[in-house]
Amino acid sequence: MVKASIIGLGAMGQGMARNILSAGIALTGFDLYAPARASFAEAGGIPAESAAEAAAGQDLALVMVATADQAEAALFDNGAADALAPGAVVVLSSTVAPESARMIAARLVEMGHMMLDAPVSGGQVGADAGTLTVMASGPDAAFERAAPLLEAVSKTVYRLGAEPGLGATYKVVHQLAAGVHLVAAAELMALGVKAGCDAQTLYQIVSGAAGNSWMFGDRAPRMMQAEPEVTSTIDIFRKDVGLVLETGQAAGVDLPMTEAAFAVLEQAGAMGLGRNDDSAVVRVYEKQTGKPVHDK
C-alpha cells in the first residue's frame, strides 16, 4: 500500500485528502486548526499533532498551505523535511512565487529529497471532485513516485519541465486571469443592480452568453448570498494577485488590469473583509452604489 502525508487541511486540502484516501492511499495529515484535523480523521485519515509527526518516515508528502512562509515553517527547522524518509518526494501545491519555489526546492535537495513544484487550479469544487488541474515541474523520478497522489486529485497533470519554479510561474500567470475575472464579476453585478437589472436574471444572461467566465459562473451566485460559505478568502486572492504583480515587475511587464484588480482587493481588505469568501469583494462596489447585490 502507498503511504503519504499531507500538510494543510483547509478548503482545498480536505478535498484532496479525501480523494487520496479514496484511492486507497494510507494518509497521515496535519493542520494547525484542530477542527480540520478532526474532519480529516472522520474521512479516514490519520491525524498528527505536527508537520514532522505527519511526515515521519514517509516517502511522499503533499504540502497544501496558503503561503511560502507557511510552507517553509512546515518543512524546515525540525519540520516535515527533517522527519521524512531519506530521498522522499515533496509535492508543493501551494501558490507561491517562482523564486520561493526554487528556494524551497534547493533546500530540500540539500537535505537529500526531491520536490515537485506542483500548484493546482480548480478551486474547492475541483478539490472535492478530484478534478484539479496540476501545473508541475521537477525531476522525472519525482513525477513517477508522486503519480498516485497526482492521479487521485486531478483530471490533468501538465509536466512543464525539470526546473523548479516553472510550475509556480504558470500558476501565478494563471492567477492574473482569475483575479481580474473575480473583480470584473463583482463590478458587473454591482453595476447591473445599480442600473436596474435583477441580479438573478443578470446572472442567467451573462452565464449563458459571450461575457461569461469560469470565475463569474462560480462566484456571482455567491455574490447574491448575504453570507456565502467561505471557500477561498479575499486575503488569499490579495496574496496571489500580489504575486502576479511581483512576477510582472521581475519580467519588466506593466500590468494595468492586474493593478486595478489588486487595488479593489486591497480596498476589500481595508474594509475588514480579508477573511471573508472572495466573492465578498462585491461589497466594495456595494459601498459605492448603495445597492446590495445579495438577497435580503
Stretches with pLDDT under 50, minimum 5 residues = none
Neighbour order of strands in the largest sheet: 3-2-1-4-5-6
Termini gap: 52 Å
Q: Kindly state the mean pLDDT as a whole number?
A: 97
General shape: globular
Strand content: 5-15%
Please count the helical segments: 14
Rounded to an integer in angstroms, the radius of gyration calculated over CA atoms is 20 Å
* β-strand number: 9
**SSE order, as H and E?**
EHEHEHEHHEHEEHEHEHHHHHH
Q: Please give the share of residues in helix.
A: 40-55%
Biggest sheet character: 6 strands, parallel
Q: Assign the structural class, choosing from mainly alpha, mainly beta, alpha/beta, alpha+beta, or little secondary structure.
A: alpha/beta
How is this structure best described in words?
There is one protein chain. The chain is an alpha/beta fold. It contains 14 helices and 9 strands. Helix 1 (11-22) packs across helix 8 (140-153), helix 9 (166-195) packs across helix 13 (256-270) and helix 9 (166-195) runs parallel beside helix 14. It is globular.
Strand and helix layout:
Layout: E1 3-7, H1 11-22, E2 26-30, H2 34-42, E3 46-47, H3 51-55, E4 60-63, H4 68-75, H5 80-83, E5 89-92, H6 98-110, E6 114-117, E7 120-121, H7 123-129, E8 132-136, H8 140-153, E9 154-159, H9 166-195, H10 199-207, H11 214-223, H12 234-251, H13 256-270, H14 282-289
Parallel strand pairs: 1-2, 1-4, 2-3, 4-5, 5-6, 8-9
Antiparallel strand pairs: 7-8
Helix pairs in contact: 1-7, 1-8, 9-11, 9-12, 9-13, 9-14, 10-11, 12-13
Key terms for this structure?
three-stranded mixed β-sheet; single chain; 296 residues; 6PGD_dom2; alpha/beta; 14 helices; NAD binding; globular; 9 strands; six-stranded parallel β-sheet
